[in-house]
């Protein structure tokens, strides 16, 4: 077995147990339909989506299995011959493209799909996955700690190679975190593979820790554990709102990005209920919930100005070939682990 795949399966073992525990209780005396939904959405958002959907469809209940993007993706691949989930919701589009390539999704065009921005969903008709929102890379910079440590403010990805930042930066592990993978994928696509790996070699010299969460580097920056955290704008915005002395930095070379999206598993035995969830996730109501945290949502005209997010944010997003990122995922992660895994955060 490929070493990268072994790492994936090890990382998701705890979630497999949690999923089994959830599944043991799917039967209901009140005859409610139950959907087992695998997700990587932030815990801040889970309750609002669940409550909104179950209010619209009181005879259907969502049961979540939640973990970081890489762990959820690995879990789904591990279960390919014995699928458990009915729906995948809030997983990175690059992961959903991979599931589509593996023949694990059933195409479905939800009600209201034509109202959504087409660029943020699968281009096939009918689509195998439908976008919810866009999330992009951001650097969380602790201004108080930077002043104490006499650290200059970085303006670009290249600036992070400055030796003054040695041991001062944390970043998400790309095998665990969708945010980590969108960074690595964007650097390789936009710098070219040779220059991209050379860049990551230089960055690795300054990295203190690769975390197993896309949110954690920004939280670490907020607490001052490490003054610089490579994260994403949702979490940066939340940490800023909590009162931490964080400044969001959007590197001038452009931002790696991905799409949170919804797909229906081909193996579901609850197709009607799964389609209703897909319909609701494509609705204006669901997208309105997403605007609480995301600067770009699939339903046009709803997004609102968020503190710290610059005007023209969408123009900062770099070229991103989701098919390439999915097809080359295992190869990229194997190489990344061989080079950099020595600084990975210990797994709980």
TrEMBL record:
Entries under PROSITE patterns matching the protein: TAT (PS51318)
Domain of life from the UniProt record: Bacteria
Position of the signal peptide: 1-29
One Pfam assignment: SBP_bac_6
One record GO biological process: thiamine transport
Any one GO molecular function term: thiamine pyrophosphate binding
Keywords: Signal
GO cellular component, one term: outer membrane-bounded periplasmic space
Database matches in Gene3D superfamilies: Periplasmic binding protein-like II (3.40.190.10)
Alphabetized PANTHER family for the sequence: ABC TRANSPORTER SUBSTRATE-BINDING PROTEIN (PTHR30006:SF2), THIAMINE-BINDING PERIPLASMIC PROTEIN-RELATED (PTHR30006)
Classification via NCBIfam families: phnS2 (TIGR03261)
Protein name (Swiss-Prot/TrEMBL): 2-aminoethylphosphonate ABC transporter substrate-binding protein
